[in-house]
Amino acid sequence: MAADLPHTMEPADSGASASTGADAHGAVHVHIASSRFYVGIFAALICLTIATVKVSYYDFGAANIVLALVIATMKASLVAAFFMHLRHDNLFNTIAFLAAFVFLGIFILLTYDDTGYRGQVDNDYGGKIDPRTGQGAAGGEPATSATADSVAAEKAPGAVVGKKE
Amino acid sequence: MFRRCRNMVVTERTKMANVSEPLQVPGHEESHPDFLQHHFDTPAQQFGAAKLGMWVFIATEILMFGGLFCAYAIWRGQDPKVFDEAHHFLNKILGASNTIVLLFSSLTAALAVRSSQVGKRNLTSFYLVVTIACACIFLVIKYFEYSHKFHLGLLPGHCFGHPGLSAAIQNGEEVGTCLRMDVNSASVMPEWVRAVDEEGHVTLLSPRANMFFGLYFVMTGLHGLHVVIGMSILLWVLYKNVKGSFSPAYFTPVDLGALYWHLVDLVWIYLFPLLYLVGKPE
Amino acid sequence: MAVVDIPVAGGAVGHAADEHGDPHANYLKAKSGIGSWMYTLDHKRIGLMYLTMVSIAFLVGGIFALLVRLELFTRGKTIVDAETYNRFFTLHGAVMVFLFIIPSVPAALGNFFLPIMIGAKDVAFPRINMLSFYIYLVGVAIILTSIVMGSVDTGWTFYTPYSVQTANSVISMTFGVFVLGFSSILTGLNFLVTVHTMRAPGVRFARMPLFVWGMYATALIQVLATPVLAITLLLLIAERFFGIGIFDPKLGGDPVLFQHFFWFYSHPAVYIMIVPGMAIVSELIATFSRRAIFGQFAIAMSSIGLAVLGFLVWGHHLFTAGMSEFATMVFSALTFLVAIPSGVKVFNWTATMYKGSILWASPMLYAMAFIFLFTIGGLTGLFLGTLSVDVHLTDTYFVVAHFHYVMMGGTVIAFLGGLLYWWPKMTGKMHDERKAKIGFWFVFVGFNAVFIPQFIMGSRGMPRRYYDYLPQFQPFHQASTIGSWILATGLFITAYTLLEALWKGKKAPRNPWNSAGYEWMTDTPPPLANFHAAPVYTRGPYDYHLATPEELATGPDGREIGYKDGHVSALPEHGRH
After folding, report:
1. A-chain residues within 8 Å CB-CB of C194?
2. Residue C559 has what pLDDT?
3. What percent of chain B is modeled with pLDDT above 90?
């Protein structure tokens, strides 16, 4: 069904061809910036570097690291977008680049879920106190005073006796 | 969503879809230039593939260094005081100089690619040489930093607490030859010791600072290794450029070599503040 | 509707052979001599070389497995002492995971078929493909050296603090694994770029064969996860060498951090193992049910879903390692989520078979075994994902049986099925179906005989990696060991069947299974350039209702339709509407 052929093909002049940088003969065409432009980006990078060093002499507490990372990310974005030509390149290249950071973020976040919460035992699942006797229930960890406090606190504001699990 | 994905990377063969092609005949100059590999249909397809491949590779490098940044983040979260104190032993001026050197080398690398894109061979060589020279300067500054640390005994792991460290202690306490923990003993961590940092301030240095220096050396060491690899790649590109392999139609290796170099710069952009700058100022 | 558009008679196909060999000649014959194999850039030859190496690795890992099971036949010492036993199970694990199963389907079958299935002449970077094979060889050599130098007894997971303190050759073995990781990354990178940039006209993403989707998803995982393994092993080596302290509590470090690092790679790694297996099964079920695969796009998306979700669940290997309770709850919930895409696939495969015209050839038997065994393995994974149950089952034989069901009952079974399915295409020879089926039954029965007793004794408390055990477990261990002999017999029969075909097999027709798949449209075995004319696809790979009778015919000989004596003629248009 030769008539079907053209419809199943991608159009020869899709917008993507501009970003791939191809012409009708398949030769390579890319966006070429001027030297001045590159020097301008370099100047911006130097300014940001000076900024980040100057800022490090002041103490903003917890915001120190956030500020440092924000400035670093701005610098990295300039390098990636302009020196590495991502701005005028195939969108998928940018996606590949950003995907690495996304997965890295998952790694750091979920590992922090562990290391940042160590030693915090969930009282409901830790020591269980039998409400009838006030002693530790059979099985599980021995009752801690923290657990007793939390059970007492639940009972105090008129809660139903014998709390439901 | 799929419509967009489909248009993101165009297979060059679709341009010639209306005529089913016989297999490429090597040696036909207009349709088949020398640099075009036999399994690609057009130079644009080859270039697009090479760029995508390089970006995927860059993504893998980010994840590899990222593991170290994760270790840094976790550790710093657990022991912020150690990090705050220990980082004073890194020289901010040398670190900032290294940053500027690398940023400048990134500029010259980008200019090298640009020169290649417009066919200026000699200018390309010039910029490549400057980039490589900056890499050498970076390594020299690094050498000074490292040797200063060795002298002070601020080394990773077993080697932490070299005799040189006692010279930096002002209150006369003897630290001993090595602060390494005897793995067979269950002894308690020794006390913090007083030491003089890079800016001449007396500060408290915990033996647990060997963690900081361990991370410092692994991170900057791995980065330094990539600087050396990047230099080698750029040297090879320089060689090929001098031989005349590149033109406005084919400058892919220059582009990819520069991309690798920019990656090296990117990693340093994050390393510099996290190691040298972030902590309580005195 | 034609699948392949071919220029009119006399089209310029008669061009001279170049340094790569005649592009129209059978790839096995295009060039000869050992140099033509060692320096080849042809993805098909590279695939075959990988296949040879992973088969040898499977043999070595299998021998270690038989030794482990033999030692466990009786309590106390049976053939070796405890220290050697520890080395045996460590090597079984390390060799099987890193040398066999991770490269197996992608590097062997994927390399061979991915370009053909998208209508390309080769992968995007043939030289990097070759490099990845040589890096693999270097990694193998380093690991062999490590074994000779005293080997490792830490378990294939190299957990700290033992791996930091033990006197054995941890550094050399981990460095070998580090090198193998690069081989994996380069293969994945190649596949990603090939799929994005080299698809033939008509191969839209939504119409790509599911095997290619599987390879694509696997490549995503390989590229994103393996670098973290690289840094993990580097840190372990630095820890051993310099005593940095990152994993040592006495120096302020955290041994559980090693486990986080390790499993961030190793959990996605198990998806590197299973997704290609599932990709093969999709192909097998479509061909042997002679129907379009049900929910093709859903299966494709479920492969991507597995790739992404697989990165979120690594903590389920650390439930009892000392993680915070909060993290255990997060990871348990995410683990239940990752079961969903696998379920989507199993449902769609079953729906494909409904009202299909089933051919019970040996590859189909393997596909059925896959569904049965993988389902058991997957469901038992849910047991392990449940925190309260995992406390009892972790580090017991239940876990061992679970992962063998998914890795062996899943990937290895699918791999064998794929080999039998594509053996004619790769070698041009038909294997003996009868022997293949006998081998299958030995494998299937033997496999269940090995691992069902392990589920039972695991749930009754038999710990894993133990040299000695209590008397009540003896019958189970003995049953399991006898099962291992049956399984080994089946594997040897199957290997024999495949190898025998090379020497005594009949010449294979073009399309012995009457499949509509793209790879069956070209010569059997394929020519060096994969096709005689650049293909253009006007139907999907499972469109049995659109394929012409010629395309589905077994074929009088191994040649692509319309290609004869160096000429390509116009394809007669036969519709089937």
Report:
1. none
2. 73
3. 53
Q: Quickly state the pLDDT bin for A123 (edges 50, 70, 90).
A: low
Q: Which residue in the block uniquely carries the two structure tokens 């075909």? A: C501
How deeply is C467 buried, as exposed, middle or buried, from its count of CB atoms within 10 A (0-12, 13-18, 19+)? buried
Closest Cβ opposite residue B277 in set A27, A68, A92: A68
Could you tell me if residue A7 is inside a domain?
no
Average pLDDT over residues C279-283: 97
**Of A92, A110, A122, which has the smallest distance from its Cβ to C196's Cβ?**
A92
Helices (H), B31-79: 43-78
Given this model, what pLDDT does residue B95 score?
93
- Residue A24 shares a structural domain with residue A85: yes
Check residue C577 and give its pLDDT: 29
Taking every pair of Cα atoms in chain B, the longest distance, rounded to a whole number of angstroms, is 87
Residue indicated by tokens 């249909």: B41
Structure-token pair, residue B91: 């020289």
- Rounded CA-CA distance A47/A44 in Å is 5
Q: What are phi and psi of B196, to 5 degrees?
A: -105, 130
Band (pLDDT 50/70/90 cuts) for residue C250 is confident
Higher pLDDT, A156 or B269: B269
Predicted confidence (pLDDT) per residue in A75-99, tens digit:
999 999 999 999 999 999 999 999 9
Query: Judged by CB atoms within 8 Å, which residues 137-166 of C form the interface with B?
Result: 165
Whether residue C284 has pLDDT greater than 60: yes
Q: What is the pLDDT of residues C313-324, one digit of tens each?
A: 999 999 999 899
Contact B51/A at CB under 8 A:
yes
Using CB atoms, which residue from A1, A107, A114 is nearest to C324? A114
Distance CA B118, CA B131 (A): 19
Percentage of chain B exceeding pLDDT 70: 68
Identify the domain containing residue A63 by its residue range. Answer: 16-89
Give me the pLDDT at residue B3, please: 32
A8 falls within a domain: no
DSSP helix/strand/coil, C346: helix
Q: CA–CA separation, C572 vs C550, rounded Å?
A: 9
Per-residue pLDDT tens for C401-410?
Answer: 999 999 999 9
Is A44 within 8 Å of chain B by CB?
no
Question: CB B64 to CB C230 under 8 A?
Answer: yes
Instruction: List C355's β-bridge partners, or say none.
Output: none
- The whole-number pLDDT of residue A3 equals 33
Most A-contacting residue of C324, C331, C334, C392 (CB-CB within 10 A), to test interface: C324
In sequence order, the β-bridge partners of residue C568 are C563
pLDDT at B11: 36
C463 touches B: beta carbon within 8 Å: no
- Residue C564 is given by DSSP the state E
Per the domain annotation, does A31 fall within a domain?
Answer: yes
CA of B163 vs chain A CAs: smallest distance (Å): 31
A85 lies in the same domain as A22: yes
Q: What is the DSSP string of C97-165?
A: IIIIIHHIIIIIIIHHHHHHHTT-SS-S-HHHHHHHHHHHHHHHHHHHHHHHTT---STTTT-TTHHHH
How many whole angstroms from its chain centre is CA C16? 38
C354 interfacial to chain A (CB closer than 8 Å): no
Question: Could you tell me if C22 lies within 8 Å of chain A, comparing CB atoms?
Answer: no
Top residue of B1, B3, B5, B8 to mutate, by most chain A CBs within 10 Å, is B8
Tell me if B64 and C23 make a contact (CB, 8 A cut-off).
Answer: no
* Minimal C-alpha gap between C126 and chain A (Å): 21
* Domains contained in chain B, number: 1
Residue C60's pLDDT is what? 95
Task: Determine how many CB atoms are found less than 10 A away from the CB of residue C282.
Answer: 26
Contact A117 C2 (CB under 8 A): no
Å between C456 CA and nearest CA of chain B: 39
**Domains of chain C, with CATH numbers?**
34-568 (1.20.210.10)
Q: Which amino acid is residue C383, in one-letter code?
A: F
CB pairs < 8 Å spanning A and C: 70
